[in-house]
Amino acid sequence: MDAEISGGQAAANRKFDIEFQLLVDAIYHLYHYDFRGYAAASLRRRLRAALSRFECESISQLQDRVMREPKIFPALLDHLTVQVSEMFRDPAHFRALREQVVPFLRTYPSLKVWVAGCSSGEEAYSLAILLREEGLLPRTLIYATDINPHTLGRAEAGIYSIDRIAGFTINHRESGGTSSLSDYYTAAYGRAILDKSLRERIVFSDHSLATDSVFAEVQLVSCRNVLIYFNRELQDRALGLFRDSLCRHGFLGIGSKESLRFTSVAGAFQAFVAKERIYQKRDPA
Amino acid sequence: MSAYAEFCARTEAIVLGASAGGVQALSELLPALPGGAQVSVFVVLHLPRDRPSLLADVFSHRCALAVREAQDKEPVAPGTVYFAPANYHLLIDEGPQLALSVDEPVHHSRPSIDVLFESAAEIYRERLLGVILTGANEDGAAGLAAVHDAGGITVIQEPQSAQASLMVLSALRRRSPDLVLPLGGIAQLFGSLAPSAAPSRTA
Question: Does the structure show a pLDDT above 70 at A193?
Fold first, then answer.
């Protein structure tokens, strides 16, 4: 039953998969962005959306444009990478950082934090505010990295639509915030502009977990809801970078539905606050 | 039951989508899945996004099959019901394995039924059974059409028996399903998924 339908559909899917691989390879060779290790299901979905956005009937057609019209690529990159995050997303995670990790961070004379895959910056600013409240920000440098220069620009600007602030404020309060979120932004023209003093402690820079290497020794890595977009090999690579970047007994925070269970790097970390997906680097055996 | 038998024989996975009224509908359906059934079941139920989902806990006590909240990269096991976590899309990836994403909401929903159904249709094709239940949202119509186009079986809850009918009506308008059934009928369909009812799957 329906053999014809599913047969035709199977052929179409197969073509899509072939074209999909070709496009990913073309992007890698031409623009040096490596999506080859991205989880296929989400990437496929984003590519399908990109087809209608760029009014292409097939991926081959999109590939043709990507290769010949350099202006197309940044827009496609946005389509393939941008995620909207929230400030203090999963407040319980930030509460656990504040109550259980900060006491360790306090013991360091200077602190470095790496927010990997920072997208539009919400996570980096949340950590900056938390560290400010805990009196640690003046001695902290936060590296916020992403592969998309356009997103990094937006992150650096630190401007968010005012209608998102109410949600951020609730999250911040639930995370155990000791000050008012309104202390950290100025509202104007329907936007909230985050305080410059936060931005001064954050270095936004271009870094790929797929192709770049370790650049600093840090005490805390925060990489939340980024690993879900990677396949296992790329996850292993990224987690390897985190392991190598972390100081002895440094901390790693990942997304609330992410897990180290399925990676080969799991042995390098031990659960620190298991429920909130906060791990601590283990001494090498 | 003979029409059912054919469906059951090739069904390897079931995707279920529901919104308003969904908890009740699922309370009737999920316990109807017989112990020993080899299907994998994936459920998207729209929920308030900031609350941790207790669905897996609630249903695991009532179901013969194992019930879990989906974890990213988890290999799909037979005889298991997976719930999409609140505030994440659930997708099925090659393997098959579970995949989560925080991409934009679809029809104001995350998890979205369309996202689950479309990704599952690509992996399971004609071995997938898609079910749209009660809900006051248009999410799921495109997803069920994708299940149909991939050769899978499509079932829509009878609108009169749905607590909220917009979701089932949108799905009906989009593409004629294989079956329109009241909850009891869907439960019966699920009941026929016992391993003995599916000898041809191993062929």
Answer: yes
CATH no. for residue B152? 3.40.50.180
User: What residues contact A12, with CB distance under 8 A and at least 6 apart?
Assistant: none
Question: How many structural domains does chain B have?
Answer: 1
Residue B122 included in any domain: yes
Q: Does domain A91-281 have CATH number 3.40.50.150?
A: yes
Q: Is residue B87 part of a domain?
A: yes
User: B151 and A3: CB-CB below 8 Å?
Assistant: yes
pLDDT of A186 reads 96
d(CA A244, CA A230): 19
The reply to whether A258 touches chain B by the CB within 8 Å rule is yes
C-alpha A7/C-alpha A25 separation (Å) is 27
Distance of CA A65 to the CA centre of its chain: 28
* Containing structural domain, residue B167: 2-198
Q: Where exactly are the structural domains of chain A?
A: 3-81, 91-281
ipTM (interface pTM): 0.89
pLDDT digits over B75-117, tens only? 999 999 999 999 899 999 999 999 999 999 999 999 999 999 9
On the CB side of B113, CA atoms within 13 Å amount to 32
In a domain, B79, yes or no: yes
Q: What is the pLDDT of residues A154-175, one digit of tens each?
A: 999 999 999 999 999 999 999 9
Residues of B in contact with A2 (CB under 8 A): 126, 151
Partner residue facing B72 (CB), from A9, A45, A258: A258
Task: Please list every residue in chain A whose beta carbon sits closer than 8 Å to the beta carbon of residue B9.
Answer: none
User: What is the distance between the alpha carbons of residues B129 and B135, in angstroms, rounded to a whole number?
Assistant: 19
- The amino acid sitting at B179 is L
What is the bridge-based pairing of β-strands B97-101 and B89-93?
A: antiparallel
The H or E element spanning position A125 is helix A122-133
Model confidence over A104-155: pLDDT tens digits? Answer: 999 999 999 999 999 999 999 999 999 999 999 999 999 999 999 999 999 9
pLDDT digits (tens, 9 = 90+) for B165-200: 999 999 999 999 999 999 999 999 999 887 654 444
Catalytic residue among B40, B53, B112, B139: B139
Do residues B125 and B152 touch, judged by C-beta distance below 8 A? yes
Asked whether residue B203 is domain-assigned, the answer is: no
B168 CB burial (10 A radius; 0-12, 13-18, 19+):
buried
End-to-end distance of chain A based on CA atoms, in angstroms? 57
